[in-house]
Design a protein that fits this description.
With about 325 residues, the chain is of the alpha/beta class. The chain folds into two domains: about 5-215, Spore Coat Polysaccharide Biosynthesis Protein SpsA, Chain A, CATH 3.90.550; about 240-305. The chain contains ten helices and eight strands. It has an eight-stranded mixed β-sheet, sandwiched between helices. The longest helix is centred in the last third of the chain and has 35 residues, at about 270-305.
Amino acid sequence: MEPYFSIIIPLFNEEENIPELYRRLTITMESLCKKEGIDKNLYEIIMINDGSKDRTWELIKELHKKDKKVKGVNLSRNFGQHPAIIGGLHYAKGEVIILMDGDLQDPPEEIPRLYEKYKEGYDIVYALRKTRDDPVYRKLLSKIFMKIFKKLTYIDTATRIGVFRVMGRKYMENFIKLGEKSKLGLALMGWMGFSQSYVEIERKARAAGKSKYSILKLYKLACDGIISFSNIFLYLHIGIYFGFIVALLSFLMGFYIVFKKLFYGIPISGYTSIIVSIFFLGGISLIILSIIAIYIGKIYEIVLNRPYYIVKDEEI
């Protein structure tokens, strides 16, 4: 018999969390199946190893040997959380699809609450973080990004949504058809429409280990998301920084020269004004060219049409 529930979990260097994740998840799912009056084995856990350097893949294989409901997909390298999740969606056979993180910040015990809301007739139900047990700087950066993302893009999403969600198979299949290759591809779920709702949960601290998202990775993810879903540019790489600095310094220099002329009577030489104008216009030009270059680079990536992820091994 095909599984009714498919739980998809991306994993990157999570060897410390896998045993406890498996234990709590199986208890929760067996209890949910019993409550719904279906066979307790009608669920599958699809763990995606996203290029881990620790024993994550070995632990997944061990779990598969003792419990065939655990399916493992080993990617050839680290492609990122969202590509790993979308890779897992291609393996899901269930009618109800559950996405969650593997660090136990998404409590498996909250799955029944999300499913109860889903049964009311919604196509997708998001876990809305009531509280978030993360460092203050991460919460602040996340809040700022989500507000900017919502303002600048055509994606309407709540600022407290993570990966944790429950959706129907039809919704999932339509999402896969989009073929989006952004590193923030899951954001398109809000763009698709359909009926959606939210359930507030308490987001816990990591059970073990450290977050795999450094400030630099979060920055790159944010930039990729905004570029992919907006025509308004906010990707300040070194060329744009330099352009702004040159333009600002040129403006200040010009202001200073005019100030001296007006208040101290110091004459302005033609050479000085020309140099200031050249530097100012050069800075503005550099900004514009940098913006164009980034978008051309994004188009180039799309034209190459490289795979979103590559599977190295499977334990199905």
